[in-house]
């Protein structure tokens, strides 16, 4: 069964350091999402890509976060510098959705970030 | 911002009992989905109900949707220990199918 791959699974870093997360969506999935999930809360959308283009990054803290999906396949989410409040699970999801039918997301296992 | 709100926040039941959780949302939707998340893992899609549907079944899952009240319920019948997880509803905001917003979730614990 096809999966969304994410790495690393766990990352511990000190505040002010840079950190990067990688996501490889299911082959053929045009839409890719990065969500942040703070412990005990639901996922909150950070950025959405359609192919290589950013569709929605309104909730992305652009002073420290950046995301790219250069060839419309895999994606990287970067935080620089990391702050204590960035400790969370970072979830990548993808879907085949292109405007018709239903948009059902497949999630990766997530990257757990702890900032000390 | 989160479109949906689940109720209750947490639920503890005995194995074999039914578990019911509710989701309320704010704007009009095209679809409502339910996802499950096991501890420390990603979310897994369970079931989707369209705005023109009132009830849907999948195995031991039953979902209802009341668009006039902007609410949905998820019923898990004959619960098992493996159903222990957090459950989230997800809605498209204002009919924008690309933008899915998740509620805060209901944590279900099934006791053996």
Q: Quick gist of this model?
A:
The complex is a heterodimer of chains A (116) and B (112). Chain A has strands at 5-7, 10-13, 19-24, 31-37, 44-50, 53-56, 65-68, 75-79, 88-95, 106-107, 111-115.
Question: How would you characterize the overall build of this protein?
Answer:
The complex is a heterodimer of chains A (116) and B (112). Chain A has 116 residues and is mainly β. Helices cover 0% and strands 47% of the residues of chain A. Chain A contains no helices and eleven strands. In chain A, strands 2, 4, 5, 6, 9, 10 and 11 form a seven-stranded mixed sheet that branches. In chain A, a hairpin with a 6-residue loop joins β4 and β5 (44-50). Chain A is globular. Chain A starts with a strand and ends with a strand. Chain B is mainly beta and 112 residues long. Chain B has a single domain (5-111), classed as Immunoglobulins (Immunoglobulin-like). Chain B has no helices and eleven strands. Chain B has strands at residues 5-7, 10-14, 19-24, 31-37, 43-50, 55-58, 61-66, 71-76, 85-93, 96-102, 106-111. In chain B, the strands form two sheets. In chain B, strands 2, 4, 5, 9, 10 and 11 form a six-stranded mixed sheet that branches. In chain B, strands 1-3-8-7-6 form a five-stranded antiparallel sheet, with no helix packed on it. In chain B, β6 and β7 (61-66) form a beta hairpin. The model of chain B has no long low-confidence stretch (mean pLDDT 93).
């Amino acid at each position: 069964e096809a999966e969304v791959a994410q790495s690393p699974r766990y990352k511990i870093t000190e505040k002010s350091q840079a950190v990067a997360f990688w996501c490889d969506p299911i082959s053929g999935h045009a839409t890719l999402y990065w969500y942040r999930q703070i412990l005990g809360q639901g996922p909150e959308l950070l950025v959405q890509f359609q192919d290589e283009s950013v569709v929605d990054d309104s909730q992305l803290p652009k002073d420290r976060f950046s995301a790219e999906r250069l060839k419309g396949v895999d994606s990287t989410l970067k935080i620089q510098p990391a702050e204590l409040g960035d400790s969370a699970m970072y979830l990548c999801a993808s879907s085949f959705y292109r405007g018709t039918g239903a948009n059902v997301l497949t999630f990766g296992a997530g990257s757990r970030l702890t900032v000390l | 911002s989160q479109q949906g709100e689940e109720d209750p926040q947490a639920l503890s039941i005995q194995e074999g009992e039914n578990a019911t959780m509710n989701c309320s949302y704010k704007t009009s939707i095209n679809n409502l989905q339910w996802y499950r998340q096991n501890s420390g893992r990603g979310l897994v899609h369970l079931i989707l109900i369209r705005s023109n549907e009132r009830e849907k079944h999948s195995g031991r899952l039953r979902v209802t949707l009341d668009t006039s009240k902007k609410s949905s319920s998820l019923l898990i019948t004959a619960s098992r220990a493996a159903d222990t997880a957090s459950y989230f509803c997800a809605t498209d905001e204002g009919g924008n199918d690309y933008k899915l917003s998740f509620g805060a979730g209901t944590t279900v614990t099934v006791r053996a």
